[in-house]
Amino acid sequence: MDVFNKATNNLGPLGQYADQIHGYFAFPKLEGEISTKMKFKGKEKLVWSLNNYLGLANHPEVRKADTEATNKYGLAYPMGARMMTGQTAFHEKLEDELASFVGKEACYLLNYGYQGMVSIIDALVDRKDVIVYDSESHACIIDGVRLHHGKRFVYPHNDIENLKKQLKRAENITSKTGGGVLVITEGVFGMSGDLGKLDKIAALKKEYNFRLLVDDAHGFGTMGKTGAGVAEHFDVTDSVDVYFGTFAKAMASIGAFVASKPEIIKYLAYNMRSQIFAKSLPMPLVLGALKRLDLIRKNPEFREKLWGITNRIQNGLKERGFNLGNTQSPVTPVYLSGKTEEATAIAYDLRENHNIFCSIVAYPVVPRGVIIIRIIPTAMHTEKDVDYTLDAFTNIKEKLDAGKY
Predict the structure, then answer these.
(1) What pLDDT, in 10s, does the model give residues 264-319?
(2) What are the chain's domains?
(3) What angle do CA 280, 283, 284 make, to 5 degrees?
(4) Which one of 13, 215, 325, 380 has the fewest beta carbons within 10 angstroms of its own beta carbon?
(5) Angle separating helix axes 340-352 and 383-401, nearest 10 degrees
(6) Each residue of 158-196: b (16+ CB within 10 Å) or e?
(7) CB under 8 Å to 130, separation ≥6 — which residues?
(8) Are 214 and 245 within 8 A, CB to CB?
């Protein structure tokens, strides 16, 4: 048997449709400056699919900082991994400022969010420990959990009563192995938009002995009084033992960070394989992140604008009879019922006839019969954009209900 056989015989649950979806529904090319209006297939579209929450991607101060840093340092400096030759005062400065912003004592930069989360989990637990995690955790968490050689238990999404049962199971095991328990959840769940119940999970620390790791990729910069995330939103910052944030969403950049107590950050810095054996974050990304963080701290109006657009489109959709699930964040999933063929027809109709670009999710990513149109509001969208989109969605709903797709 040749390991390459799968490349032609079994492309996987999504790959099997590659010939039909590539270039349009999968791997589409959005062209032009990052904005609410970009070109797709040569025509301008109103885009609701970019995680540019605060509109920082093309903010003039951000572009200036990125350009000046690139001109001064290039993309190579610092050359080498952080532990070897990749350490700079600016990396340390960014870590200090991020830690202060999210209410932690220490922080460590990560090259990418996905690999960073995988490596955090891998470093924190060994075969004596037990992981307990939410069933709707992001793929980076799932992949990190898969590396764990010890026991792992999953609880149904945000089901606190079931989480208690899993914690009891975990404690029964660790009482024999001498290990510990790590609970992993998200701040904002990126597909559904609802929040991890950090307040209720934190309260369980009175009954159970565990550490809490929170992936707040979509919450960092958007949630809480100052944008410090979902832990701030619930006022449980001190109960979150390890906080993870990414630059790929509200910061509109590349990179990520992990924040915790100094001794935990030191341990992670010396044990996260994906960082030890990878090149340091390039200087333009570090200086660019410093500028972005400064703008987030000094300009609460960015977040206020984001939430103004979020509330307008979410309330408008609900008033028109759309089901948005239990979203409590800017992530806006619109749930419809229909077949996969109808989902592709809806996406085509929105893009070609209404000039609206949204991400469409259908089977096999979600159960058969479920269609999700995922809208990501940003501070750059306007009320006119919202009103136009609401009318377009009303039109597609009428067609779907009438069986025209």
Answers:
(1) 999 999 999 999 999 999 999 999 999 999 999 999 999 999 999 999 999 999 99
(2) 3-53+300-401 (3.90.1150.10), 76-298 (3.40.640.10)
(3) 130
(4) 13
(5) 140
(6) beeebbeebbeebbebbeeeebbbbbbbbbbbbbbbbbb
(7) 150, 151, 152, 153, 169, 170, 173, 174, 179, 180, 181, 182
(8) no
* Rounded distance between C-alpha atoms, residue 144 and residue 147, angstroms: 5
Cβ-proximal residues to 297 (8 Å cutoff; 6+ apart), any chain: 101, 226, 227
Name the residue among 126, 207, 130 with its Cα closest to residue 164: 207
Pair of tokens at residue 380 = 């750059």
34: Cβ–Cβ under 8 A, 6 or more apart, which residues?
50, 52, 57, 58, 252
Segment 130-147, tens digit of pLDDT? 999 999 999 999 999 999
Q: How many CA atoms lie within 13 A of 364 on its CB side?
A: 6
In this prediction, residue 57 carries a pLDDT of 95
Q: pTM, whole model, 2 decimals?
A: 0.94
Q: Which two tokens stand for residue 230?
A: 């979902």
